[in-house]
Amino acid sequence: MNGDALYSIGELARRTGLTVKTIRYYSDSGIVPPTGRSHAGYRLYDIDALARLDLARTLRELGLDLAAVRRVLDRETSVPEVAAAHADALDVQIRTLRLRRAVLRAVARRGASPQETRLMHRLAQLSEAERHRLVHAFIDDTFGGFDANPEFVAMLRSAMPELPEDPTTEQVEAWVELAELCQDTDFRASVRRMAEIQAADRSGGDTGALQHELNEAVRERVAEALAAGILPTSAEALPVTQALTALYAHAFERADDGDLRRWLLARLEAAADPRAERYWQLLATVNGWPPVASLAPVFTWFVEALRSGEQPRRQDAPPVGGQ
């Protein structure tokens, strides 16, 4: 190819495969300016213009806008810099498309109404910071103003929903349900009651940390009772209940008496809201954590056993001052 040769728009079109209209548009936009004009006034282009045109076509096929193409051709920025910036932009677009796909699949599976579809779309589009603010607002509303267990509140604040860039339909559904749960006024009131009980315990001198080992011991012993078919209202349940209340008495440095059982019953009943357990199950699904085992059967059995044990205790108690 002759480096001194000049080409008309038609010749450039034949060499590049672009349309005359596209080349003329690039020329008018200043991306591939003409080198000169023929005696008849037609635009002519040299070999450098042909090279610019080839590069412009490549960059456009990669999705760059005309402004970015012009900066590259005018050497205001380099191809690697523009490529990196465009790749970052594509990452955002891809994540958006993945979210939309997951939302659409969730809508199809749930048979969502138009209102539910709009809500799911809005919640799925929230940024990570916005998701965290929503959950922190829930924690502030339920535990704010109470001197609740600081370790428990810190655990709540550290467990934030982290929706992945390519979420599954289940993760999108779990996040939508979790967001709705955090904004449920009735659930918030239920959690505030838990915070009040924690604050009351602390005002009474309970400054202990979370009782993970105690909770695990309760889980194991009640699970054994359930597996053995022991009803919470039966006589066979009494030794299990006594063993468990003894563990609580030791852990909280309290006497193992009727006051302890009534205190424990109030705590368990306040924590019995199944939505509290659902909160952690949804959070685990969103974050891809191992499934959270349900403790509902365990605490239901224990509460019923405590209630059953209190009635005979009141009936058998001797009169005040009696022997």
Give a written overview of the molecule.
This protein is mostly helical and 323 residues long. Helices cover 68% and strands 2% of the residues. Strands 1-3-2 form a three-stranded antiparallel sheet. α5 packs antiparallel against α6 (114-124) and α11 (212-227) runs antiparallel to α12 (237-252). The longest helix has 32 residues, at 79-110.
Q: SSE layout and pairings?
A:
Blueprint: E1 7-8, H1 9-16, H2 20-28, E2 36-37, E3 43-45, H3 47-61, H4 66-73, H5 79-110, H6 114-124, H7 128-143, H8 150-158, H9 169-182, H10 185-203, H11 212-227, H12 237-252, H13 258-270, H14 274-287, H15 296-316
Strand order of the largest sheet: 1-3-2
Poorly predicted regions are 312-323
Roughly what is the average pLDDT, rounded to an integer? 84
Task: Give the termini distance in whole angstroms.
Answer: 119 Å
List the keywords.
three-stranded antiparallel beta sheet; single chain; 15 helices; 323 residues; disordered C terminus
Tell me briefly what this model is.
The chain has 323 residues and is mostly helical. The protein is built from 15 helices and three strands.
